[in-house]
């Protein structure tokens, strides 16, 4: 069985080397040393867990956290030198799953990683058979179908992934590049037509002629799921 993949986003080379050496027996550990590269790597090839430092070049850790959370629920464990509890609470509310204050104990770090991976596995198992209902739309994970009122439509794998992401964040506008990267796990370059076809297929299935438009494109901004099907709601 393959090892869980850990991505470390940390600009301290000595700490990167130490984390790789300490964790490599149990996890497959790689690292990047700036926030911009961290975002690209996380979205293009999502790891099983991210260890994220806050003080990063180019894009800081807080911005990485907020950007990733727009499209991904990958577990993120923050490393911080900040002692301010209010700051820590803000990080958790922004989407961090856990945190450790520097300096930290390596055994405790490994234990916290295991906890987050167990939680993710348990959540994934539950989600396999869960139904997501938003407004008049129900997404059925077990059957790979979407139900609109009393009508049910089968979904292709990527159609399902797109709709799950949009319905999981109703009203939120996803730039098409972010939406494509989150679903296909690769850069958007060259993927415009592919995404357009899948969105068109979804609209045909759930948008209603002369009625509610649940999947909406906002010119120059991106795509969103509107639970009521009404513009601006």
Question: How would you describe what is shown here?
Answer:
Helix content is 42%, strand content 21%. It is of the alpha/beta class and 233 residues long. It is elongated, with a radius of gyration of 19 Å. InterPro entries: CheY-like_superfamily, OmpR/PhoB-type_DNA-bd, Sig_transdc_resp-reg_C-effctor, Sig_transdc_resp-reg_receiver, WalR-like, WH-like_DNA-bd_sf. This is Response regulator transcription factor. Residues 129-227 bind DNA. Residues 129-227 form the OmpR/PhoB-type domain. Keywords: DNA-binding, Phosphoprotein, Transcription, Transcription regulation, Two-component regulatory system.
Please tell me what the overall shape is: elongated
Give the N-terminus to C-terminus distance in angstroms. Answer: 47 Å
User: Biggest β-sheet, characterized?
Assistant: 5 strands, parallel
The DSSP helix count reads: 8
Rg, nearest Å: 19 Å
Count the beta strands. Answer: 11
| Sheet with the most strands: spatial strand order | 2-1-3-4-5
Helix content: 40-55%
Uncertain residue segments:
none
Mean model confidence by pLDDT: 87
SSE-based structural type: alpha/beta
Q: Work out the strand percent.
A: 15-25%
Order of helices and strands: EHEHEHEHEHEEEEHHHEE
DNA-binding region: 129-227
Domain OmpR/PhoB-type: 129-227
Domain Response regulatory: 5-117
Protein name: Response regulator transcription factor
């Amino acid at each position: 069985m393959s090892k869980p993949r850990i991505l470390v986003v940390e600009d301290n080379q000595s700490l990167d080397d130490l984390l790789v050496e300490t964790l490599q027996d149990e996890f497959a550990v790689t690292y990047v040393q700036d926030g911009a590269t961290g975002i690209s790597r996380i979205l293009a090839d999502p790891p099983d867990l991210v260890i994220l430092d806050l003080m990063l070049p180019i894009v800081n850790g807080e911005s990485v956290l907020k950007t990733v959370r727009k499209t991904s629920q990958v577990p993120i464990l923050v490393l911080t030198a900040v002692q301010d509890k209010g700051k820590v609470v803000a990080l958790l509310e922004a989407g961090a799953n856990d945190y450790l204050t520097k300096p930290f104990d390596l055994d405790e770090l490994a234990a916290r990683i295991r906890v987050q991976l167990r939680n993710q596995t348990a959540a994934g198992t539950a989600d396999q058979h869960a139904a997501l209902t938003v407004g008049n739309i129900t997404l059925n994970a077990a059957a790979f179908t979407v139900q609109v009122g009393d009508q049910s439509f089968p979904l292709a794998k990527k159609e399902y992934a797109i709709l799950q992401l949009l319905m999981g964040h109703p009203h939120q506008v996803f730039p098409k590049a972010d939406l494509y990267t989150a679903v296909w796990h690769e850069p958007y370059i060259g993927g415009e037509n592919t995404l357009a076809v899948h969105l068109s297929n979804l609209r045909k299935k759930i948008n209603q002629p002369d009625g509610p438009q649940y999947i909406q494109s906002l010119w120059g901004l991106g795509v969103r799921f509107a639970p009521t099907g009404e513009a601006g709601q």
